[in-house]
């Protein structure tokens, strides 16, 4: 009601609330309002509302170091592949320009997707406590709004931590200070494919025939069939349980202070 464009207020609002330790109750309040207008569980927190934008900005500020320790080594490897990652494949088959004629590129892509996915699902101990508190609130609000959907508590969290955090950081590492410059065209294509894979793997219950058939590219549909194993779904579920828990975590040794003031 005050701002012509409410999103102009999001960043200073988030910084102010962080400073006064009031962000979690505020996000819970605006998320509850957001959920009142959500009619279907599968569209939960998918739009650009005040609630989702606040959580986005919070993750960028609070989760900066978390992203760095989780993804930067893998992102660096994509830009500068090692002999281990390329195996016995010749350089001309790098990067992962996946198409229906290149099984070698598919193998490379599988290697990187496996590695990024593995780093993410085992990183819950490093997730900042504030992010966990916010996810805990969102999870329980979603379960309350859709009590007959057992999966919504997970999709409420995955829609942020996978779709709006990790997947975005993979496809645009320079905007999250994971790389100094915008990636070249070939590396960017590889990162886009990895990001697509992480989004799909992170979406609770997404590895189904109906979901896979939604891919425009036939080769991507075929590629994801290799991930239709229960171990991937269980890994995602355990990770989402961990990052949306309010139980105290052991010191990870990777935290650093959050700077709210600039200039």
Automatic annotation (TrEMBL):
PROSITE patterns (UniProt xref): RAS_GTPASE_ACTIV_1, RAS_GTPASE_ACTIV_2
Coiled-coil blocks: none
Pfam families in the cross-refs: RasGAP (PF00616)
Alphabetical list of SUPFAM superfamilies matching this protein: GTPase activation domain, GAP
Keyword field contains Disulfide bond: no
UniProt keywords, alphabetically: GTPase activation
InterPro entries recorded: Ras_GTPase, RasGAP_CS, RasGAP_dom, Rho_GTPase_activation_prot
Region (Disordered), start-end ranges: 241-263
One term of GO molecular function: GTPase activator activity
SMART domains the record matches: RasGAP (SM00323)
Domain Ras-GAP: 5-203
Keyword Thylakoid carried by entry: no
Name by which UniProt lists this protein: RASA2 protein
Organism, as annotated: Cettia cetti
């Amino acid at each position: 009601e005050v701002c012509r464009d409410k999103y102009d207020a999001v960043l200073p609002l988030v910084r102010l609330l962080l400073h006064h330790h009031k962000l979690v109750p505020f996000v819970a309040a605006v998320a509850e309002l957001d959920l009142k207008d959500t009619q279907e569980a599968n569209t939960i927190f998918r739009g650009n509302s005040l609630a989702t934008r606040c959580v986005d900005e919070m993750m960028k500020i609070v989760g900066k170091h978390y992203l760095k320790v989780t993804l930067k080594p893998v992102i660096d490897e994509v830009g500068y592949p090692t002999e281990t990652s390329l195996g016995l494949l010749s350089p001309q088959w790098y990067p992962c320009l996946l198409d229906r004629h290149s099984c070698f590129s598919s193998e490379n892509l599988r290697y990187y997707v496996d590695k990024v996915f593995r780093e993410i699902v085992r990183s819950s101990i490093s997730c900042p406590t504030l992010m966990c508190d916010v996810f805990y609130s969102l999870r329980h609000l979603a379960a309350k709004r859709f009590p007959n959907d057992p999966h919504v508590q997970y999709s409420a969290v995955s829609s942020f931590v996978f779709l709006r955090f990790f997947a975005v950081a993979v496809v645009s590492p320079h905007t999250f200070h994971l790389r100094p410059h915008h990636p070249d065209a070939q590396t960017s294509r590889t990162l886009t494919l990895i990001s697509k894979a992480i989004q799909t793997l992170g979406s609770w219950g997404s590895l189904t025939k109906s979901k896979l058939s939604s891919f425009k590219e036939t080769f991507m549909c075929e590629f994801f069939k290799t991930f239709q194993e229960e171990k991937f779904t269980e890994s995602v579920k355990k990770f989402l349980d961990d990052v949306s828990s309010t139980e105290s975590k052991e010191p990870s040794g990777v935290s650093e202070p959050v700077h709210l003031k600039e200039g």
